[in-house]
Amino acid sequence: MTDEAELLRWRMHHQFTDGPSAVADIARRCAGVQAQDAGAVRLALRARGAADPAAAQAAYAAGEVVATWLMRGTLHLVPAEDAAGLVALFRDRLLRGGARRRRELGLTEELCARALAVVDGLLEPSPSRAELVTRLREHGVPVEPTGQAPAHLTAFLAAHGRLCRGAEVAPREPGYRPLPAGRELTTGDLARGYLGAFGPADPTDFAAWSGLSQAVARAGFEAAGAVEAPAGRSVLPGAEPPPAGPPLVRLLGPYDTYLLGHRSRDLMLDPARAKRINAGGGVIRPVLVADGRVLGTWRRAGGALVVEPFEPLPAAVGPGVEAEAEAVAAFLGEPPALRIEGPA
Predict the structure, then answer these.
(1) Contact status, residue 165 vs residue 174, Cβ threshold 8 Å
(2) Residue 311: what are its φ and ψ, rounded to 5°?
(3) For the chain, N or C: smaller number of CB within 10 Å?
(4) What is the mean pLDDT of the chain?
């Protein structure tokens, strides 16, 4: 096996297991799950061991996980006990990154300060964003209720550790709740979580995934005790490559965390096919992955799960694709019909 193939298998086996997993355990194993789309979150959790489409909402409602703006300034689902520590690590970067847009939207320093002063008393019962804006306006915070201002004010309050997202209060409408207290985290802790989820990797990958500077990323790897692995990457001390076995196959939903963990996707995805996965605008399509390589895309159409491989699928991958198609259909409550389109 080449170093490249071993590296890709190692990375994939870090995140994906064959047994059932609790949502908080998945979030911890993945160093956070990309969470800007509720449907994508459910598919991400399914691929990592959550058997029930309602598992995410149950975990939110139980206070086991929350979602907030963290790595790269995007929403992530994380264990509740880690949320406050992560927010503290990213606070300054999040606030600086949003400052210009807040000014453009009329979110003045005075308005934001007023929101900080009153928001703690406005989160019970858990409001939707529209309800939270109504409550803020009733308490002297003149935020414009339409457009992008509510989203940016909410992100500002979240960066200050005053709120986070919890269970939905209506279909596809997250509720907001106080950020739970939790343990303090360091950049070394973040790097350890990252390497456990995405290693083997290097500090450049960690910087791209987190949004932190290269210098901070290198210091994080050093604090984490990272050791050398194949192809010039690093892993955590004691980490071992996965044992030999049949290909690990997954059908991943849109925006999947696995595709966002490294500076470049060139090892897992032929650059000539990159636009079939990410044609622009931040949209990342659902993909078929086997032992770390992206082999094609998939979608639901005409009552079937349609897989479109880039090339004829290796025979060893076929059983995994069939099993995944059945699992996705069962998860979505749809007929277990698989159709392969394209190269055969």
Answers:
(1) yes
(2) -140, 165
(3) C
(4) 94
Q: Report pLDDT digits (tens) over 79-101.
A: 999 999 999 999 999 999 999 99
Confidence at residue 1, expressed as pLDDT on a 0 to 100 scale: 41
Q: Write out pLDDT tens, residues 215-253.
A: 999 999 999 999 998 788 999 999 988 988 899 999 999
Q: Return d(Cα 168, Cα 187) in angstroms, integer.
A: 31
Q: How far is CA 83 from CA 88, 90, 186, 281, in A?
A: 9, 11, 12, 28
CA 154 to centroid of chain Cα atoms: 19
Summarize pLDDT for 277-333 with one digit per residue, the tens. 998 878 899 999 999 999 999 999 988 999 999 999 999 999 999 999 999 999 999
Distance CA 34, CA 77 (A): 6
DSSP string, 115-160: HHHHGGGG-SSPPPHHHHHHHHHHTT----SSTTHHHHHHHHHHHT
Lay out the sheet containing 164-170: strands in order across.
Answer: 33-34, 75-79, 65-69, 164-170, 173-177
Q: Rounded CA gap, 154 and 102, in Å?
A: 11
Strand partners, 69: 75
> DSSP 3-state helix, strand, coil percentages of the chain (rounded to 5)?
45, 15, 35
